[in-house]
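tool_call: predict_structure(chain=1)
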Amino acid sequence: MNAGAAVTHVDASKGMVQWAKENAALSGLSDRPVRWLVDDCVKFVQREQRRGNKYDGIIMDPPSYGRGPGGEVWKLEEQLFSLTELCLPILSEDALFFILNSYTTGLSPSVMEYLLGTMLQKRFGGSTSSSEIGLHVTESGLTLPCGSTAIWQN
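tool_result:
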């Protein structure tokens, strides 16, 4: 946002959107151009496709598991490919990045990197990387693994 970007933050949880707004304010970013939306991410992306809206970057942090208002079940391992694929048409021709975070046990960084690489590199070029997400433990000097991240960048 410091470089002039506009951000659209979408989450189905009203509480998570409120928390993100509070974090933005605490970081001195409350005056920046952010659209805060409480919405189902799949429905949002489908609407953006119909409207022809494009984005230069996507940061996706989907839940490991969840239930929709109609009792729909969300399991990341089963729906990550289709969710990522759904987002491809809303990336601009000059897309810069796609970041995927996961806190799902057993979903390795290399699998996420492979997913982004196969979906994005053929169309856009660029490169992919991945790593673990972790918390540094001061007492032991070790890092407690908490999840994975994969990044495609152009």
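agent: The longest strand covers residues 143-153. Proceeding to next step.
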